[in-house]
Amino acid sequence: MDNSSGVGVLDKAALVLSALESGPATLAGLVGATGLARPTAHRLAVALEHHRMVARDIQGRFILGPRLGELAAAAGEDRLLASAGPVLTHLRDVTGESAQLYRRQGDMRICVAAAERLSGLRDTVPVGSTLPMKAGSAAQILMAWEEPERLHRGLQGARFTATALSGVRRRGWAQSVGEREPGVASVSAPVRGPSNRVVAAVSVSGPIERLTRHPGRMHAQAIVDAAARLSEALRRTAG
Questions:
Q1: Which positions fall inside the HTH iclR-type domain (predicted)?
Q2: Which residue from 17, 69, 125, 219 has the highest number of Cβ atoms inside 10 Å of its Cβ?
Q3: Is the pTM of this model over 0.90?
């Protein structure tokens, strides 16, 4: 297969990035892997380093840079949002409650997609809303699978405990009753990326009068199914 795009400098830059996909490389290693002349390989690697697409490890070898991870995350978010609309709409229709999708951003979580109830009292969280990571079933989901140190920090001041998060990991879903806001209950489940890392939480929320004090009994299966559909969409588009 001809890998030439007709733009020589881009083709050579792509060769450098592809060579680094298998791990760190010295300049000599890059030359050997790409077939480029030594000055060309060096010039391209340094230029890519300027744009953070290439970096250096502690031994000075060339490695893939942080900008590629940022672009990959953005592409993953786009895929997630492209799939979210129909899944959240179906979840709303099945449960009769407002459905949301949250992503973590630092110490907060952001509602990146939602499907509102069509009638009656709307217990909605508008898209773009920023909520704390200290309370609510979605916060529990986004926290439960964190590495120990970040988990320990996140639990300080939280309305839920390490024991509660252990239960979340075991069940695969979380519920909250009046935890974030009085009178509101919610159920959430994890959306996982191709590497199985939790990348988002899908939720339904509504008044305790409708969801009861055990909302998981009513809606956990529908939430878990919706999360599985979104996780599968991410795996499919990444494949």
A1: 7-66
A2: 219
A3: no
Angle (deg, nearest 10), helices 38-50 and 8-20: 80
- Measured distance CA(190)–CA(236) in Å, rounded: 17
Torsion of CA 81, 87, 110, 237, to 10 degrees: -30
Same domain, 124 and 35: no
User: What is d(CA 182, CA 118) in angstroms, rounded to the nearest whole number?
Assistant: 23
Say yes or no: 99 and 204 in one domain. yes
Where residue 81 sits, what CATH number does that domain have? 3.30.450.40
pLDDT in tens, 146-187: 888 888 888 988 899 999 999 999 999 999 987 788 888 999
Contacts of 66 (CB under 8 A, 6+ apart): 52, 55
- DSSP 8-state code for residue 25: B
Q: Which residues of 11-39 are buried (b: 16+ CB within 10 A; e: fewer)?
A: ebbebbbebbeeebbeeebbbebbebeee
Cα gap 35→38, rounded to integer Å: 9
